[in-house]
């Protein structure tokens, strides 16, 4: 009983300590305003903050001695324009009470002091929300996805707003600095602008069951040509025929290239699927991708690898210059490649491969149950809990999950000749493959979650940056011996495995297939 009472006492002490830590208010420093003011400053009754239930709002106004702040017509106009054009940042005007605020602004000279206070509070409340949304996104990916491991962003909106007000000449610059500055985000904004410049899309879906090859004649070709003209892959013509002519073939190849499809001029399911996307759907796709880019960190480091999963591509970047580009193979929709950020740790030459639980359950055990020689054919050895080898004759399906399955090094190994390790909770890594022919495929959503890299030895050599111990000839010698060897990556190189399906290049819209079917659902959540 004595120990129980002590336990309860200490639990209460710890609980109270945690509660105290949570509720320690931020230190408030009264901001000295620059004079002269435009318009009058009105005292705010602090009880008005209660109805908003917003600590950021309360902290901000206490920093201004509980007085109104939006005396400047210029600043109010800027903020209202930001709300009005929120779509330019992939956001929605309705989320910031734009209509109500715009009406108040029109009659600002007729508002009473009470109404001016209400307007001031409402403008600040919505602007703080807007700052948070442009800085870190409207939604939190951790609330939506289990396989997205991104560090949660935190935005001190009051601090940003106070900084902006402190020197009003820099107000716009301070707010603009909250927006993502990466080149891809800027290309998304350009893509949205390009899309908005296009006329209303009235073309109906095109339905064709067979592949269309050059010189084919069919009535649907007219609709296909119109859609190519709409997307500016084909120049407008006075008359459109049913013939799949050479000019249209080149237009289709260009369309296919922009959509990450095989540029062969053959109109199959993939090309037709992309052609049937209308303007509205593409706009939603771009807005969705802008939201994702707000989730990603603002700083990437001086040197990093970036994998765009739907583009099946890895790039190595140094000081904002792309140094290397590699094709990659990523996870299937069933076994997705996770979204994450991490720092590269080391490379392993001639790696062994321990079969992960999912592959064990779904692939290995069913195959072994049908064919006792399956493990031997894959150079996989099973070990029991004591580390003893389990022969094919002794292997039992009832104990299958208790065994550890290890594939020995070699060109047949599922990881190929090298793997690159980085800390993450998903046990994934970059690696070579024993199916290098897969890099010739257009759709490379084929792995079990890890990222397979084309020409991985060249990438590894680049990452190690060790011309004494690991020049290419030394790496080749290590591989020939088939001994497993670890090599540290000493430079601070970060890896970003991310997901985006739209952007622009040279004023042209670029799209990729949404291989994990994330875009539509995310847009629905955004627009709610």
TrEMBL record:
Q: In which pathway does it act?
A: Cell wall biogenesis; peptidoglycan biosynthesis
Q: Does the keyword Cell wall biogenesis/degradation apply?
A: yes
Could you give a GO molecular-function term held by this entry? transferase activity
Q: Which Pfam families match?
A: PG_binding_1, Scaffold, YkuD
Task: Report keywords, A-Z.
Answer: Cell shape, Cell wall biogenesis/degradation, Peptidoglycan synthesis, Transferase
Which SUPFAM superfamilies does UniProt cross-reference here? L,D-transpeptidase catalytic domain-like (SSF141523), PGBD-like (SSF47090)
Q: Which InterPro entries match?
A: LD-transpeptidase_YkuD-like (IPR052905), LD_TPept_cat_dom (IPR005490), LD_TPept_scaffold_dom (IPR045380), Peptidoglycan-bd-like (IPR002477), PGBD-like_sf (IPR036365), PGBDSf (IPR036366), Transpep_catalytic_dom (IPR038063)
Which family is annotated? Belongs to the YkuD family.
Spell out the protein name for this chain. Answer: L,D-transpeptidase family protein
The record lists the organism as Flavobacterium capsici
């Amino acid at each position: 009983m004595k120990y129980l009472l002590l336990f309860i006492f200490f639990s209460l002490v710890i609980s109270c300590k945690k509660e105290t830590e949570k509720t320690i208010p931020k230190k408030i420093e009264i901001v000295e305003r620059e004079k002269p003011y435009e318009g009058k400053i009105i005292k705010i009754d602090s009880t008005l903050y209660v109805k908003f239930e917003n600590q950021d709002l309360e902290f901000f106004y206490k920093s201004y001695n509980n007085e109104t702040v939006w005396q400047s017509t210029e600043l109010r106009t800027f903020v209202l324009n930001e709300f009005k054009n929120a779509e330019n940042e992939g956001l929605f005007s309705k989320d910031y009470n734009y209509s109500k605020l715009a009406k108040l602004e029109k009659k600002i000279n007729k508002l009473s002091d009470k109404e001016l206070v209400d307007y001031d509070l409402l403008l600040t409340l919505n602007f703080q929300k807007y700052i948070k949304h442009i800085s870190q996104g409207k939604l939190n990916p951790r609330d939506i996805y289990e396989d997205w491991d991104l560090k949660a962003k935190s935005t001190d909106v009051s601090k940003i707003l106070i900084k902006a007000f402190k020197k009003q000449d820099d107000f716009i610059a301070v707010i603009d600095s909250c927006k993502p500055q990466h080149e891809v985000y800027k290309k998304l904004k350009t893509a949205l602008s390009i899309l908005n410049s296009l006329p209303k899309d009235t073309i109906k879906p095109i339905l064709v069951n067979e592949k269309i090859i050059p010189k084919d004649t069919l009535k649907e070709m007219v609709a296909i040509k119109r859609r190519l003209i709409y997307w500016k892959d084909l120049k407008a013509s006075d008359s459109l025929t049913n013939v799949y002519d050479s000019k249209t073939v080149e237009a289709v190849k260009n369309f296919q290239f922009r959509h990450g499809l095989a540029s062969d001029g053959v109109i199959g399911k993939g090309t037709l699927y992309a052609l049937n996307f209308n303007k509205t759907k593409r706009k939603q796709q771009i807005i969705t991708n802008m939201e994702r880019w707000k989730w990603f960190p603002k700083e990437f480091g001086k040197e990093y690898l970036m994998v765009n999963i739907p583009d099946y591509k890895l790039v190595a970047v140094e000081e904002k210059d792309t140094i290397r580009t590699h094709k990659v193979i990523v996870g299937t929709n069933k076994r997705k490649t996770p979204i994450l950020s991490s720092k590269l740790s080391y490379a392993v030459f001639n790696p062994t491969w321990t079969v992960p639980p999912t592959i064990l359950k779904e692939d290995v055990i069913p195959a072994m149950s049908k064919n006792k020689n399956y493990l031997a054919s894959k150079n996989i050895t099973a070990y029991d809990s004591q580390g003893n080898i389990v022969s094919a004759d002794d292997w039992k399906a009832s104990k299958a999950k208790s065994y550890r399955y290890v594939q020995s090094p070699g060109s047949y190994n599922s990881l190929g000749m090298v793997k690159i390790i980085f800390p993450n909770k998903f046990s994934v890594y970059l690696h070579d493959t024993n199916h290098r022919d897969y890099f010739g495929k257009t759709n490379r959503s084929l792995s079990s979650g890890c990222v397979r890299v084309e020409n991985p030895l060249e990438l590894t050599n680049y990452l190690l940056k060790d011309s004494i111990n690991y020049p290419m000839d030394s790496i080749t010698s290590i591989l020939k011996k088939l001994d497993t060897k670890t090599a540290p990556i000493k430079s601070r190189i970060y890896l970003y495995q991310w997901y985006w399906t739209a952007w622009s290049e040279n004023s042209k819209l670029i799209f990729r297939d949404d291989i994990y079917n994330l875009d539509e659902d995310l847009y629905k959540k955004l627009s709610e």
